[in-house]
# Entry
Amino acid sequence: MNQTSSVPFIIGHRGAAGLAPENTLASIRRAKVEGATWVEFDVMLSADNVAMLFHDDKLDRTTNGRGVMAKRTADALQDLDAGASFDPAFKGEPIPTLMETFAVLAAEGLGANIEIKPARGADVVTAEITCRLITEAWPATLPPPVVSSFSRLAMEVARDLIPATPRAMLFGKLPKNWRAVVDELTCTAVHMSHKHITPDLAAEVRTAGFPIRAYTVNDPKRADMLDAMGVTSIFTDRPDLFSS
Ligand code: G3P
Ligand code: MG
# Structure
């Protein structure tokens, strides 16, 4: 498998989102059980600026709450059930804070890709708070995290606040000017949708010297194809399908 750093080929997506409720501590622990050594998760701010693990703008899909996540305080969010809508067996699983997550990563010895996922209009503050927590509290026993975002604004803040931490710009489809964007943001890798990766595109990114990490890949055959193209990592909801 193609690996250019301590980041492995398999990265658990939102923990192990195909096996446990996404972006919960149960999901992160499950990724470890299934053999993952790194996980990805999304960080969004509560109304009182607590960094928490959450993906959608709204609470509806993954919790028993309704409405916009970023309008609730951390206390209110932590009273919600983020487990039962995935499976009743996970009833009561809460939305974790980023700090709680750091403790679990340290206990499990898991590396992480921290995706900054700002609520509408909160790009700068979400990046500032996430970067501050990484600076002050990232577990010293773990390899440095990789910080990523679809948000250019968030990645500008990350570049300025944590220049020595590996950072990756997130794309769906790679834009023609990807190299200028990545250079401007001093990113160390490209993260993008596997659906838009072709052999030529992968070769272009790899020849330019950047690892390319692809989301979200749940089919081992597709993972083999991406590996053969030079893709350096995949994000998968199902790390169990890839454990040896
Ligand atoms: O970071 C990779 C992947 O998680 C990006 O897309 O929407 O799942 O956060 P999304
Ligand atoms: Mg994500």
